[in-house]
Amino acid sequence: MLSQHKKRLATTFCVIDIFIILVSFCVAYCLRFGWKELSIPGIPIQFLIFFLTYLIAWIYLSSRFKLYTSKRITAFWYEAWDVCKTTAICLLIATLPAFFIREHPLSRIFLLYLWPLQTGALILFRFVLRKTLKYFRRRGYNFRQIIIVGRNERAAKIVKQIKENPEFGLYILGYIDAPGNGNNVGSQHDLKLMGSLKDLEKILTEKVIDEVIVTLPFKSFYSEIEKIVHLCEQVGVEVKISTDLFSLTLAKESISRFGDIQVIDLFTSPKMSCQLLLKRLIDIITSVILLVLFSPLFAIVSILIKTTSKGSIFFKQPRVSYNGRQFSFLKFRTMIENAEELKKDLMSLNEMDGPVFKIRNDPRATKAGRFLRKTSIDELPQLINVLKGDMSLVGPRPPLPSEVLEYGLADRRRLSMRPGITCTWQVNGRSNISFEKWMELDREYIDTWSLWLDLKILAKTIPSVIRGSGAS
């Protein structure tokens, strides 16, 4: 019964969203072409195809991003972000057919009107709905009755959250407990003890229970938790189980599906998301533009290298990328032809600690090479690596395979993100900082990554390159 009720609400919610999408489409069309042009027979074919493609994408993605699941205990900004992601991807998908209808292109001004208008309307609807539901919940309406299975510190945190947020619309009837569950915790003595685990079936059949929240230790009470889930499944009561199964300091968690199996994801590096897809899109567009703009410089540098020393124009070297994948790393050649063979004779001059080799005034560098390295022009061919997908514009620098072999476990975490041309190490002095600090900066970048952070690093890279800070 509860499942059917949820499906009806989700269907109603979806219908309202489709109505908002239709209205915003009409408004955007009229703002671009005028209200007199709004008639189904008069709308050009490319706009009808766009709208139908958008609707199909919306119906699929709204389900994929769980836009119609209960959000009573989810922060509004998470819901707003999900809406923004969905509308942006739908817009991108819906514009693809336009590439095949060249004689009837979509209006770019129409698209500029549509996205903020539509996204704003969908978010506003959810905001008003939330405020309305919170108003009624604070006054005792539209609430759900729950019981907590297990009295311990984990349960205390959940109770505190519920009591501090009456807008959740959750009313705790009490708890049931089991011996050996740390039930001497005194923070919940104000909650009614309704019985033990053996009384759960009776409580579920005699009381009005909407949800059961299980806070028992998973390892100690696995079989009991399994029985609770099966029992609630039989009577149609929703179960919530805390996912903080392990004492983790860095890993974040989310729930996903592995085929037909629901799994808990534990991860430290940024998880595949719209932000990462946008990062890749920025990499492709920017690398193409810069390769075109710098093509005359590529020609000049190529001539300079060829006329001042023997050897190839580019220096290719195996480097380690995402999660240990290897690729061919490109730079303009700045050293003599047999530089790699001479490296073993210069190890005593290494100025870096850890498994990294760097010499400020490397005797193997050519005259032209010293200039290219000082100005960081030698790094420009890495734009080709970015375009191919081996690297990104921003990310930890790609190490040599020999360096990775000497990494500690914590250092290997820098391989959990696609390497980049620049990162926090580049804008903080490069060769002037220690290996340990370098690794720390890379881990900090991964832990706090966002598109905004990438933009800030790119902005700091330009003055850093102009000053030649730490270049060697």
What does this 3D model show about the protein?
With about 475 residues, this protein is an alpha/beta fold. It folds into 3 domains: about 1-140, no CATH class; about 145-240, Rossmann fold, CATH 3.40.50; about 275-465, no CATH class. It is about 45% helix and about 15% strand. It has 15 helices and 11 strands. It has helices at about 1-35, 45-65, 75-95, 110-140, 155-165, 200-205, 220-235, 275-295, 295-310, 340, 365-375, 380-390, 400-405, 435-445, 450-465, and strands spanning about 145-150, 170-175, 195, 210-215, 240, 250-260, 260-265, 315-320, 325-330, 390-395, 420. Strands 3-2-1-4-5 form a 5-stranded parallel sheet, sandwiched between helices. A hairpin with a 5-residue loop joins strand 8 and strand 9 (about 325-330). Helix 3 (about 75-95) packs antiparallel against helix 4 (about 110-140), helix 6 packs parallel to helix 7 (about 220-235) and helix 8 crosses helix 12. It is flat, with a radius of gyration of 30 Å. The model has no long low-confidence stretch (mean pLDDT about 80).
Key descriptive features of the protein:
472 residues, alpha/beta, Rossmann fold, 3 domains, 5-stranded parallel sheet, two-stranded antiparallel ribbon, 15 helices, 47% helix
